[in-house]
Amino acid sequence: MHIICNVLNALVLATVATASSSGCGVAPPIPLGQRHNATLSSADLAINNRTFMYWLPPNYNPAKPNPLILSFHGGGVNGDRQADQDSFADPFFNQDHVVVYPQGLVAGAAGVEPITVWQGIRLLPCYWDDVAFVLALLDHLERELLCIDPTRVYAAGKSMGGGLSDILACDARSSARFAAIAPVAGSYWARLDPRLCSTPDSAAAVPVPACPGKRACPMPVMAFHGRNDTTAPIGGGPITGLDCMPPVQRWVETWAARDGLDPSSPSAEKLPSGDNATVYRYGRGDDGGEEKGLVTFVMPGDHVAHDWPTTVDYGGTQRVLEPGQGPANFNGTAMIMDFFRKYKTP
């Protein structure tokens, strides 16, 4: 399978890799370590003038291709808020990865206040295509704006943004462009009326969204979901009053199976942070067998709600707190950075 996936991904990435050097060898377009808002120009009217925010790390090197993280905000917020939460744009956690925060569009439904959203939720029109936006943005970043290594492009996100990272990994147009994904408190839309998943039994039966376009080779996945999340419930069920989501454990096990791993026997490691925080790693990783942790699920704590697991105060101060003072007792961002560094697109 790895030979097949290497060939397929090489075909997808060949054009990108050849063109990506056009952003190298020129001075950085913005000061390092500062957030900057920008607008994407495109001949596609559905994409033209869509916006994003980006941040260049202290070790950004315009002469050498740099790794890139796309981080997608949750519903109702924006890239600035996502950057406050995820701390990817903080040198304390990240010295070398470019970070880009695409901006969602505003949509509403009957009886629901319009908010910024990403595709996936069932009430959006069928032509809504954030995957096309992300791919156009990636092309712009790699071919024109920055010096990016196309084999080290990663997707992360919170809530709806986490759900979009899952969609990107499952869409045939985009799956081969990402080396790994890391959804946090993800909204995994089943596209069902929430009245169909309102009881414990019906919630447990919600199907995992299909993944028809996953690339041939395994997709590394690190997911986080708090046990006290009532917005995107870890046990599945109604989400935002507009849709249903499956139990997160079954979603994780499905990803393990997609990647050729045994979904029934992960290793379990309790974190020293307490609150029953546990890391589940799928894959043996012995004697050249399945890689341990290729799919990793982190349950950050019994009391962690719909939050990015962090000890950082993301109310705007961006200071690291003592355990017990933030939404969680450890920093998931550090774990994600370590996870991303392990993988390149084959």
From TrEMBL:
Q: Does the keyword section mention tRNA-binding?
A: no
Q: Which GO terms describe its biological process?
A: xylan catabolic process
What Enzyme Commission number does this protein have? 3.1.1.73
Q: Which InterPro entries match?
A: AB_hydrolase_fold, FaeB/C/D
Assigned GO CC terms? extracellular region
Residues of the signal sequence?
1-19
Q: What reaction is this protein's catalytic activity?
A: feruloyl-polysaccharide + H2O = ferulate + polysaccharide
Chief location: secreted
Can you tell which superkingdom this protein's organism belongs to?
Eukaryota
Hydrolase as a keyword? yes
For this UniProt record, the keywords arranged alphabetically read as follows: Carbohydrate metabolism, Hydrolase, Polysaccharide degradation, Secreted, Signal, Xylan degradation
Task: Report the subcellular localization.
Answer: Secreted
The molecular function GO annotations come to: feruloyl esterase activity
From the Swiss-Prot or TrEMBL record, give the protein name.
feruloyl esterase
- Species of the source: Apiospora kogelbergensis
Lineage start: Eukaryota, Fungi, Dikarya, Ascomycota, Pezizomycotina
